[in-house]
């Protein structure tokens, strides 16, 4: 090899090595005029919260550097000094750049070196701030309760123009630099424009077209499989998932579960987004706001946890905890026949849930020492007195404390007019192996065949629930 060729090779491999070093790790050099001799922290957003990533010492001239051998996860970051956030910036594919500014105005005075992503980010922050300043007097006009709508018309039109300028600026960045974190940040909040429904052959309009279209295109501007989406302010990822599941689908088990499977498939290409969306949806439906949707939790466990899909991040103990809860919910889902409870009452007599012959039976799990139970019991007594004949309803109460003395004292104090039994003296095992009743109090509503038709309904909602149930179901 000639001397010249050796030099060329040395230069070539030196360039390759430098490139590799730049890609493996991060180095963010900063100078903030007005800061000196202090400690500053680098934080990252992550859905509902944030976490600390690095610490740096600020010298007497305001210089400091964050660096590490492992690259930072792409997303929106911010600096913290004395528990106060100073300013946000982005971290993308290039993690070797310089930020220079002053304490008098971090954003306005920001100078970025060697990073297009942050140049775009700060330029837009300044652009938006200018438009917001222009909008301030018109916002004040709109908020003036004395002025008429006609007097506010010009202000609204001006605000619409200013808003469109900001949106146009964002769309321009998205169009020209789509792979930047800045573009992804703007895209996350970008609304999907729903087209008008087409006419059918007979000239009529398909009333279902727009909903179906919106479902299919809801995530056109938001990539569920990009981990950057997890590190944006305001937990946008979770907000988008909630809006999709809660507003676009009927809250029924199969419908919601199928919708979840579709969005999980979009997130699956990245392990972090795959893990997050499965875990978030699982916890969302573990204790759902709408009765019966805890069955979605069971379906999610069966598909993503029991099969080993989530073994890449969840340890055996965590998997077992999720499984135990799912199996407990599985025992007492809506539509299932409630397991019989055979336990001793205050007279040491075995009493059976199945001996109840009323049209409706309320199973009331309670703890004599539970403050919430003591507050709810008088409400249940009043409800029972009001509707027991109207609905042919009675209560079967189960004390979750093993003390018979406490149970008897509770019965006497509250003057409960129904059968009360003690779980400890059971002929069928622990009630928590038969029902999902961990928190106290817990209510289950059964029909005459002991089928579960309602669960965990607040006492004040019971009458309305039964009225609606009889309206939509033929009952004898």
Can you tell me about this structure?
The protein is α+β, with helices and mostly antiparallel strands. The chain folds into 4 domains: 112 residues, Sandwich (Immunoglobulin-like), CATH 2.60.40.10; 66 residues, no CATH class; 95 residues, no CATH class; 131 residues, 3-Layer(aba) Sandwich (Glutaredoxin), CATH 3.40.30. 44% of the residues lie in helices and 20% in strands. The chain contains 13 helices and 15 strands. The strands form 3 sheets. Strands 10-9-13-12-11-14-15 form a 7-stranded mixed β-sheet. Strands 4-1-7-8 form a 4-stranded mixed β-sheet, with helices on one face. It has a 4-stranded antiparallel β-sheet with strand order 3-2-5-6. Strand 12, helix 12 and strand 13 form a beta-alpha-beta unit. The longest helix has 28 residues. The N and C termini lie far apart (99 Å).
Classified by CATH, the class of the largest domain is Alpha Beta
Q: Overall mean pLDDT score?
A: 92
Low-confidence stretches: 1-22
The spatial strand order of the largest sheet comes to: 10-9-13-12-11-14-15
Distance between the termini: 99 Å
Radius of gyration: 31 Å
Total DSSP helices:
13
